[in-house]
Amino acid sequence: MSSEGANPRDRILATAARLFNTHGYPNTGVNLIVAEASAARASFYDYFPSKEALGVAYLRSYGEENLTLLKTLMQRHPEPQEFLRAWTMILKRQARQGMTGCPMANLVAQVGDTAPTLTSDAQSMATRTIVTLTEYLDRAQENGQWKTKRPTSSIARQLFAAYEGVMQLWRLTGKAAALDDLLEMGTSILDRN
Amino acid sequence: MSSEGANPRDRILATAARLFNTHGYPNTGVNLIVAEASAARASFYDYFPSKEALGVAYLRSYGEENLTLLKTLMQRHPEPQEFLRAWTMILKRQARQGMTGCPMANLVAQVGDTAPTLTSDAQSMATRTIVTLTEYLDRAQENGQWKTKRPTSSIARQLFAAYEGVMQLWRLTGKAAALDDLLEMGTSILDRN
Q1: How far apart are CA A135 and CA A116, in angstroms?
Q2: Structure pTM?
Q3: Which of A111, A168, A189 lies nearest to residue B24, judging by beta carbons?
Q4: CA–CA separation, A131 vs B182, rounded Å?
Q5: In 3D, which of B158, B84, B156, B169 has the Cα closest to residue A133?
Q6: Per-residue pLDDT tens over the stretch A50-92
Q7: Which residue of B has its CA nearest to A114?
Q8: CB atoms < 10 A from the CB of B25, how many?
Q9: Which fold has domain B1-49?
Q10: What is the CATH number of domain B63-191?
């Protein structure tokens, strides 16, 4: 996400991301975003024809950033359990820095049936994440880092579910121990024959 | 949740639950609830001093219903894996009947930092669920249905995270296979030494 000092479009997007993360998408009006980004209301609509268009831009920006981060962790850690350990550490660091859960999951929960474009965008992003995890597990298996008899696509989906689950539990219990569970849950999922 | 034909308070609560589940809490105004419940606006405020008070009543009503359901499943299935199988089947049935994810998790995501009472109520409900799961695992272990060397409270938290995770993945992918994962993820978590 670009810094709030950048050009007006990036400033609006960065401000919106901060407000969406704190107050939630439905509770954040365009007026507040424009005011906090020190932008003109008219220029908002030059960049984003609607609030939903801004929501889609926010989601894509987060989604690309998160996929890039996951891919970096995968490259650094060809062994799946080491990857899980690194992923868990990153989440704990992000939690200390003010992360408020998975933006994809939060947004889908927040809009209900009121923003179908946003929902389907989040769905294709989730699918891409699962594909990326599947390809990683396939490589790890080819390279002899780990093996399984089960379909790697279903293991990948379960690892992603474990990630979403610990993020929810962390929100619901307020305790960082929930994030630590990603390592143990993920290891249980990887190790199952 | 009471039927929509009941007394005004129950009718408002049932209507609100339906609308919150479909459109999300922040996207559902009091005017719409009152209109769809065929209630008078003044009577709404007799029963619920604010929309947040209605949100709390909705959460408690769902929470009690869900805990009762879990306890029934636990009594019927003293063996943890059988309990997981029954829980998974119930989720799939609820999904076919229009469930839109875990109301607790959805609500916490939806309100962001705008409704602290709701958030802390959801948090104590999540804690009660984990305690109930822990007590169940302790009984299963005492009765020789299953055993572990790890703390049952951490296994309980991971099972709850698996539940939240598959609910999210189901929302994010739109595929029921995600709900089926609860059985395999849960079994992996239970079986780990």
Answers
A1: 29
A2: 0.94
A3: A111
A4: 20
A5: B169
A6: 999 999 999 999 999 999 999 999 999 999 999 999 999 999 9
A7: B23
A8: 29
A9: Arc Repressor Mutant, subunit A (1.10.10)
A10: 1.10.357.10
